[in-house]
Amino acid sequence: MYDWLVVGAGFAGSVLAERLASQRGDRVLLIDRRPHLAGNAHDRLDAAGVLIHVYGPHIFHTNAGAIVDYLSSFTDWRDYEHRVLAQVDGKLLPIPINLDTVNRLYGLDLDSAGMERFLAERAEPVDDIRTSEDVVVSTVGRDLYEKFFRGYTRKQWGVDPSELSRTVTARIPTRTNRDDRYFTDSFQKMPAEGYTRMFERMVDHPLIETALGVDYADIKDQVSFRRMVFTGPVDEFFGHRLGRLPYRSLRFQHETLDKPWHQPVAVVNYPQTEEYTRVTEYKHMTGQDHPKTSLTYEYPTAEGDPFYPVPRPENEALYKQYQALARATPDVWFVGRLATYRYYNMDQVVGQALATFARIDSALPRKGTGAMKSAAE
Ligand code: FAD
Ligand code: UDP
Fold first, then answer.
1. Residue 88 beta carbon below 6 angstroms from any ligand 2 atom
2. What was the pLDDT predicted at 370?
3. Where in the chain is the domain with CATH 3.40.50.720?
4. Could you tell me which CATH number the domain at 2-37+203-244+310-363 has?
5. Taking burial as the number of CB atoms within 10 A of a residue's CB, which of 103, 134, 150, 338 is the most buried?
């Protein structure tokens, strides 16, 4: 009998498995239906020996020292600050939009104050900023919105930005200085030997048994366990009984080129042209020294592995109904991007998993302690 069945070996499931085993002495069976650890952060050497991210570019960034401290037990880090260029009107320009983006796009020579005036003249007043279109047009105006956001967002999500909650494009700031980093978090680094190696160390514990390529649906009646952590899609757990929650998927096309470099930065976005949204060249992020280079093209799709919850009011309303079912399900904890239907970054999932562990640990007596307590009473 296992104390816990943990479904999903991504950040949510692996952090919980590690905490339950190492801090409480609980016996854990950790499963994933895909044949590898690390969930969507999985990386591996490709046929040419280049380290690639199988599910697209993953850059670790956070402002939370406690999350860095926790993960640092399982990995060293390499310095890396992410920079992205967007191909717009035939030019490669910094995104997030900054002073250089505007000057180079329009052939201007503005300073920061000049860019603030430039944007203020073009920004469209929006009384109630609700959608992903509102966020951008109310900050930079319609032309920059059309060039950088509208096409990319329609490709990525299959709907117009006016139909998506503001939280989606609000992930991307606008800057009137020349800072061209994608993220400004205090900590942005890559696990020195990759994500999968970090996960291998995380779940390497005598009380954790790992079974990969195993679907919960196929084993739930064959394995005995007291409690469960579920990190897959919450609507799937409940047999879609209230209807399907939409998740956006991606098709990844990986390729290796017989030359050392392909593009100037790790990620180039294509908001105006191409069927793919972006091209990633991993060696910029991993620092690997290799005579060849490997790339990934991302083609958004409606069908396939669930990668993104789709933030729209009606989806959030349906999720609330599943959340009520989840809360009424004893002995199952729902954690992570798919099980709580939240567009979370990796650090947010680690934070959610650590917070869930704290709640579990305060609600359930640790092994032996319950008996000791009652003996003492
Ligand atoms: P997942 O990694 O999805 O893990 C859930 C696991 O559960 C999966 O492996 C799945 O196979 C398994 N599972 C589901 N159902 C079952 C079942 N029935 N039985 C068995 N197993 C099951 N975050 C960042 O911080 N920085 C980035 O740069 C970044 N880039 C990203 C790029 C892309 C293309 C994508 C898609 C995401 C990116 N993210 C990034 C987000 C990051 O991937 C997630 O925050 C994180 O991986 C979520 O972890 P999780 O454990 O919640 O989910
Ligand atoms: N976005 C865009 N153009 C860009 C970059 C981002 O329109 O060049 C929008 C798009 O809707 C995207 C969202 O901003 O889905 C969030 O971008 P992010 O890079 O955070 O997406 P992720 O890495 O999570 O796919």
1. no
2. 54
3. 2-37+203-244+310-363
4. 3.40.50.720
5. 338
